[in-house]
Hints:
A: Aspartate Aminotransferase, domain 1; 14 helices; binds pyridoxal-5'-phosphate; NIF_FeS_clus_asmbl_NifU_N (chain B); SUF system NifU family Fe-S cluster assembly protein (chain B); iron-sulfur cluster binding (chain B); iron ion binding (chain B); pyridoxal phosphate (chain A)
Amino acid sequence: MDVSPSVMTDPIDALRDRRADFPILGETVHGRPLVFLDSAASAQKPVQVIDAMADTMRTQYANIHRGLHWMSERTTDAYEAVRDQVAGLIGATAREEVIFTRNSTEAINLVAHSFGSLMRPGQAVVISEMEHHANLVPWQMLRDRTGIELRVAPITDEGDIALDALERLVADGKVALVAVTHMSNVLGTVTPARRIADIAHAAGARVLFDGSQFVVHRRVDVQAIDADFYTFTGHKLYGPTGIGVLWGRRELLEAMPPFLGGGDMISSVSFERSTWATVPHKFEAGTPAIIETIGLGAAISYIEAIGYDAIAAHETALVDYALQRLAEVPGLRVVGAPAERGGVISFTMDDVHPHDIATLLDRNGIAVRAGHHCAEPLMRRLGLSATARASFALYTTREEVDALASTLTQIRGFFV
Amino acid sequence: MDQDGLYQRQVIERARAPVHAGPLEGATGRGEGTNPMCGDRVRIGVWLDADGRIGTVRHQTRGCAICLASADMMAGLVAGQDRIGAATMGRDFTALLQSGQDGDSCPELRVFAPLHRHRSRIRCATLAWSALEAALIEAPAGTPVGETRDG
Ligand SMILES: Cc1ncc(COP(=O)(O)O)c(C=O)c1O
């Protein structure tokens, strides 16, 4: 029999075999196969990550950067190798520009604290209307601490950053930093990072991108987008919790004071004064998340082996398919219609509250998120108190999207 | 569709067509319950008669079916109760949600018993009761007789 090439190269099916790498996908929930559509909150872990972490603890573990013994040196090598991997992943030119943090939230707090301490009252930070609380609250705290101004770039009704408004917001030259998401966790919007960076730089501002969602779906090139800071979080990238990344331009990191003080971040200490280690260690106080960092390294290897081309093709096709299937559900409204969308779809349904949707989907084995998604100001902007959100990962299948759509149709029938 | 008994007909119908929803003009006690996890909100308006018994309760609810039905059923059930009676009902209701066991003062509320298997949703059902508690703290007894209290 003839197998048509279009079937063979279907980008959604192309990753089907990868599901076997994720042991949890074999679990059942309420007696049904798990349909996990909440990967934007945190992704499931492939066996390669699980094994890398377990093997570290079983065979090659000690504290790093301090031991003179064999185990410590080997573990230090494994940990530092992940810094090179991250640099390669995002196109950093120097490994020293990669700082390990606990998560994206901590990475942004680091910048708000340390870069923020170089800002003067009267200067401003610009964020957008669709930021996760992680890229909002740290700037409010900085504002309240130091008297800087916090400006908010509006979004369009489609869910894109209004670039003309952004241009006006930076025009007075007082803006020190534009800090915006590279992909919205609510609307799925992929923001035009290079254009935003150009707008910021033309006004003398630096730019930070919250890449927590983007890095899962597309290749990041911090040079191509001309970023000054970039953050992401390991657990959404098929890695473990407890490890995140801040990338920053070396000259900025060198000018910034440390964030946390303690061991590992010093060069010398006396009771009178201490001097700081060079970057990146200046920003990595205390024993880091060694095992989790090694887990992140395994996740990056895993993704690089599959390749972002295949990941992005799978996701684009799946999002198109899902939008089409969801359009068939009576009363369902997809929130936002951004120019470019990653694998995140928020929706509401007439007469059915997102919580009821999520509970009823869960009873049928389907995990989605419902609520404000840590973006309350965005919800207010959209005139909503909550949405339901389905989000996709490289292991998501067409059949799972079908299950979502048909169960939503049943739920709607149940309420109306 | 499997729904684990959570959405009994009565719950869905109450949520769709609540009978005690809306503002209460002339309320002497007002209270609000919010769930920061999801942004749901119940506002309660209440007035007490001269004996300290609940006259009318109305609610303005932004929330899920469970939250709405619970608020609406509560508003009907607590009318005529004094503060202690209402508090006892609230406590029994919480116990029912946590254990799934009957034996409470309000058999009508047993439709919410399956929530004990859905811990993350219990707050949806208790939100109105927290709002009522706040409203009753504020409300003085002894509303003048004859005044229109119905919103
Ligand atoms: C866009 C965005 N930014 C930041 C975060 C925060 O990530 P974390 O909680 O790992 O710091 C998230 C995830 O919740 C997110 O989706």
